[in-house]
Structure formats: C-alpha cells, structure tokens
Amino acid sequence: MNRPLSSLKAALAVCVLVGSSFAQNVAPDRFPVPSEKLKATVDNAVAETLREFSAKGLTEKDVAVSVIDLSDPSKAVSAGFRGNIPIYPASVVKMFYMAAIHRWDADGKLKIEGEVERGLRDMITVSSNDATGYILDVLTATASGAELPEKEFAEWAFKRNSVNRYYSSLGYRNINVNQKTFCEDAYGIEQQFRNYRGENRNMLTTDAAARLMYEIATGRAVSAERSRKMMELMARDWEKPVKSPEYKEFISHALSTGMKLWSKEGWTSKTRHDAAYIEAPDGRKAVIVIFTENFAGEIGIVPGIARRVLEGIRLAK
Predict the structure, then answer these.
(1) Is residue 63 a contact partner of residue 49, using CB atoms and an 8 Å limit?
(2) Most CB atoms within 10 A, among 8, 89, 155, 258?
(3) Short-list 88, 32, 299, 281, CA closest to 200
(4) Cα(223)–Cα(102) distance, rounded to whole angstroms?
(5) Distance of CA 271 to CAs 17, 202, 267, 281, Å?
(6) Which of 206, 218, 216 lies closest to 73 in space, CA to CA?
(7) What is the Cα–Cα distance from 205 to 89, expressed in whole angstroms?
(8) Is the pTM above the cut of 0.85?
(9) CA nearest to 60, candidates 35, 41, 83, 37
(10) How far apart are CA 227 and CA 8, in angstroms?
(11) What angle do CA 177, 79, 67 make, to 5 degrees?
(12) How many Å from the N-terminal Cα to the C-terminal Cα in the chain?
C-alpha cells in the first residue's frame, strides 16, 4: 500500500477539536442558550439511568446526551452531558449527508431527482447503507475502488472531505463526516482512507447532532422549504403497528400516546444512538440526542434517559 504523507495531511480537512462546553461547541447566534435548570434535568436523567443499569456495568463514559427544550420557541434553551465528546455515530451521520445534499442542490451543484432522490429517501427512511454510499459519492464526486498511490489518493481524499469543509464553515466542531456506512467492512480505497493514522472514521458529538436536528426542525437548515422536506423524511409513525421498524427500539419507547416523532437512529454491535425531535400534545417540544457505547444490547438505556428528560422538562423552566 502506498501511504500519503505531507500532501495527504494537507488534503485531509477534518474538523478540529475545540471547546469544552455545549455553548463553545456551536455557533452562538444559531443555537439556544444553555440553561442551568435544564442541565440539572439532563444530569438527573443520566444519573438515574446509570443507577438502573449499574449492575450491567454502565458508567457515565458510556453515555452522551444533548437536549434542546423548544416548548417556548422564543426562549429555547439547551443542555448536555458529555455533549462535546466525539463518538462513532452509526447511522445518525446520514442526517448530515441529507442536509448537505440539500445545500448542494440549492447551490446548483446537483439536482435531487431520479436516483439521487431515491437514494436520499432510502438513506433516511429505511437507513440503507447502499443508498448512503451512493449519496456520499454524489456529494463528493468520489467512488470506491482499488487503493491509490500518494498523489491520486490525496486528490481523492480532498474531494471526500468536502462535506466536512461545509460543516466546518458553519461552525460545527468535533465531528468527522466523510465515511460511508457499511454492513460488513470497507475495502480498497475506502479502507485505505479510513485507516490513515486512524483519523478518518466517522465521528459525531451529541451537541452537533442536536444542533442539526434543531436547525431542521425550526426551518433553519438550508431553507425553510428544504427543512420541511427533510422533516418529511424523518417523520416516524411510531404508534402504527408495523413489523419491527428500527426506530421503535429507541426514543420512541419513551413516548406517550399522541406525541409526534421525527428521528434518525442507528446502531452497531457496540453503539446505540438516536437523534429525535418530539412534539407533545401539551405543547412541549424538544430535541433529544442520546449516544451510548458498549451497551448496544441494552435497549432500555436510550428510552430510559429520554423518558426522564421529557418528565423533567416540565420542571426545567
């Protein structure tokens, strides 16, 4: 294998790790202010869930949470628990590719029609990894194939990081969104790219996922009309009795009758994540993002935290 050095380092425009708090990790003019009361609600929700699963060995290092309370749109507030820690995002990364492809379409770089439209829909609604690979190829003008020598690989890597550069320009930090999602494993140039010094695995923070979900839910992602189209893809009819949809094993388990759900969830053998926007009949609205590591088989952790957050939001004003 040919391993690029200086030229590749220049090409890899991954986001830099900066900041240590929720407020520092996002653009302040685009995000709700932190709330001490909401922070206490989130911390309590995590603490109670840790106690519930203590016999299983769950620790605070296995959990990250970010919450935005939108019950009062004019005074939306935010809080997080380890919200700025980069974690492998599973399929939640697909939400970032969805917003990016709408940006590309708005800028005239491509059109969301034909196979692009089909791939976008399947990437979000059924979480297809094949569709995700196609969409990322379209976004970055790259394609899978055999490993490449240094010069060609550096050029390919620069293209593949175009989505990273877009989110970096918006002020997103602590994330890396340049990998396809695979059911089995990466091969050829995809493996060459992913393995380079360990720098190129997808990583997200719950802060970043919460910010994007908030922007989509409030019409701020690309445009109000495009945000609406993204919301349509993420709408989940969680109360409908259908055969084992993936999203039913996540935050939907915490919801009560009449609540509406929009989400992008994902899991691997080690992780279980959900990024959700929820509207309750009583007027509560919230973005809740929960990532767990090392306990993918414990499907009660994510809804346990979400249920406690939703109950606490009533008291977090």
Answers:
(1) yes
(2) 89
(3) 88
(4) 9
(5) 22, 13, 5, 31
(6) 218
(7) 8
(8) yes
(9) 83
(10) 35
(11) 65
(12) 57
Q: How big is the chain by its Cα radius of gyration, in Å?
A: 19
Find tokens 């899978």 and name the residue.
144
Nearest to 226 by CA among 215, 241, 236, 242: 215
Is the C-alpha dihedral spanning 34, 216, 236, 127 positive or negative?
negative
Q: Count of H helices and E strands in the chain?
A: 11, 7
Domains of the chain: 31-85+206-220+234-317 (3.30.450), 88-204 (no CATH)
| Cα–Cα distance measured from residue 21 to residue 121, given in angstroms and rounded to the nearest whole number | 34
pLDDT in tens, the chain (317 residues): 444 444 445 444 443 333 323 333 444 456 799 999 999 999 999 999 999 999 999 999 999 999 999 988 788 999 999 999 999 999 999 999 999 999 999 999 999 999 999 999 999 999 999 999 999 999 999 999 999 999 999 999 999 999 999 999 999 999 999 999 988 888 999 999 987 655 678 999 999 999 999 999 999 999 999 999 999 999 999 877 665 555 567 899 899 999 999 999 999 989 999 999 999 999 899 999 999 999 988 989 999 999 999 999 886 55
Q: Which residues of 16-25 are buried (b: 16+ CB within 10 A; e: fewer)?
A: eeeeeebbeb
| Residues 233, 120 contacting (CB under 8 angstroms) | yes
CB 173 within 8 A of CB 15: yes
The tokens describing 155, both together, are: 């050029």
Residue 106's identity, in one-letter code, is A
**DSSP of 56-109:** GT--GGGEEEEEEE-SSGGG-EEEEESTT--B--GGGHHHHHHHHHHHHHHTTS
Tell me the two tokens of residue 314. 């009533």
- Residue count (the chain): 317
Taking the CA atoms of residue 257, residue 39, residue 297 and residue 216 in that order, the dihedral angle to the nearest 10 degrees is 60
Residue 66 near residue 86 (C-beta atoms within 8 A) = no
Query: Three-class SS of residue 275?
Result: strand
